[in-house]
Amino acid sequence: MWETFSVYHSVRRAARRPLPYDDIVSVIEFYDRHPINEAQVLAAVARRRGSGTSLRASDLFDFDQDHYGGLAAVETLARRAGVAPAARVLDVCAGLGGPARFLAYRFGCRVAAVELNSGRAAGAARLTRLVGLDRHVVVARADATALPFARARFDACLSQEAFLHIADKATVLGECRRVLRPGGRLAFTDWIARPRLGDLERQRLREWMAATTLQTIDGYRALLGRAGFTTVRAEDLSDEWRPILRSRREMYRALRDETIARFGEPWYHDYQQVYGFFVGLVEDGKLGGGRFSGTA
Ligand SMILES: C[S@@+](CC[C@H](N)C(=O)[O-])C[C@H]1O[C@@H](n2cnc3c(N)ncnc32)[C@H](O)[C@@H]1O
Fold first, then answer.
1. Would the CB of 210 count as within 6 Å of ligand 1?
2. Where are the domains of the chain?
C-alpha cells in the first residue's frame, strides 16, 4: 500500500490535473497482478528458445504485446501515425514496452515509452536493455495526463488499449496534442462503449478491470476535434476484436499454473470470471473496439 501511496503522491505532484486517487490505485493494482508480466514473458521465451543465448527483440514479440491484434495492430497504427525511420515517436501507456520495441525494431525510429505502473515501467526498461534496444527506446514512469515532455517534442504518438483506464480523456488527448509538433499524428486503439452497455456493466468494468470510463466512437471523434486534432478518422474494430478476445481468454486459461504460482488460486479464478464477463460483453455487442487518428 505504501508503494501505491508514494506513487500517487509523486504522480499527483507532477500532474496538472491529478487523476482521482481511486483510479490510480485500481489501475496500479490491476496491472500489479496481471497474467501478462515481465517474469511470464521471460519464462515463455526461455521455454521456446532455451536459456543462455542472447535475446533479440523479435524473440519477445509473441509475448510482450498487451493489446489486441499483435504486431499487425501496431504496424497499422504506425502507418496511421506516419511513423518513419527519422520520426520521434511517443508510446503512451506503454505497458512492458512491447509495441515501443517493435516500432524501433521495425522502423529504426527512436521511441519514448510512458507507463504509470512502476513495476511495468521498470520491466519495460529491463526487457529493452536485455534485447539491446535501449539506445532507441527510453522508458519513463509517468502519468499520461501529465506527460513529462516539452511542447512539440514528437512527430508521432501512439497508444493501445489504455485510455479506458483514464477518466479524463480530454486531458490525455490534450497532452498528446501538446507534445506533438504541428502536423504530427496521433493514432490509438481503445475499448468503445456501444449503445446497449448498461450502467451496472459499466460500474463492474470500472470496479473489476479499472476501466474508469468508456467512450463511444462518436464521443472520441468529438473529443479529438475539441483537443485540436484535424483529419480525424475513427474506425469500428468490434468485429475484428471478437475472435481475438476469444483466443486471449484461452491464452489466460493456458497460463493457469503460472498465474496461480505467481498470484494464488483465488485470484486466478477471479480473473477468469472478470475476463469472461468482459468477453461476454464484446460477444453481446455491448462493448467493442475502435481505432482513431488525427493530425495535430
Ligand atoms: C492493456 S495495457 C497496454 C500496454 C501496451 N500499450 C501494449 O499494447 O502492450 C494498458 C497500460 O496502460 C497503463 N496505464 C493506465 N493508465 C495510465 C496512465 N494514466 N498513464 C500511463 N500509463 C497508464 C497501464 O499501467 C497498463 O500498463
1. no
2. 2-295
Query: In angstroms, what CA-CA distances link 162 with 50, 73, 93, 212, 267?
Result: 32, 14, 6, 10, 22
DSSP percent split of the chain into helix, strand, coil, nearest 5 = 50, 20, 30
Can you give the pLDDT at residue 21? 66
Q: Would you say domain 2-295 falls under CATH 3.40.50.150?
A: yes
Helices (H) and strands (E) in the chain, counts: 13, 7
The full length of the chain comes to 296
Q: Is 95's C-beta closer than 6 angstroms to any atom of ligand 1?
A: yes
Determine contact, residues 120/162, Cβ cutoff 8 Å: no
C-alpha cell at 186: 496521433
Dump pLDDT digits (tens) for 126-160: 999 999 999 999 999 999 999 999 999 999 999 99
Q: How many CA atoms lie within 13 A of 29 on its CB side?
A: 18
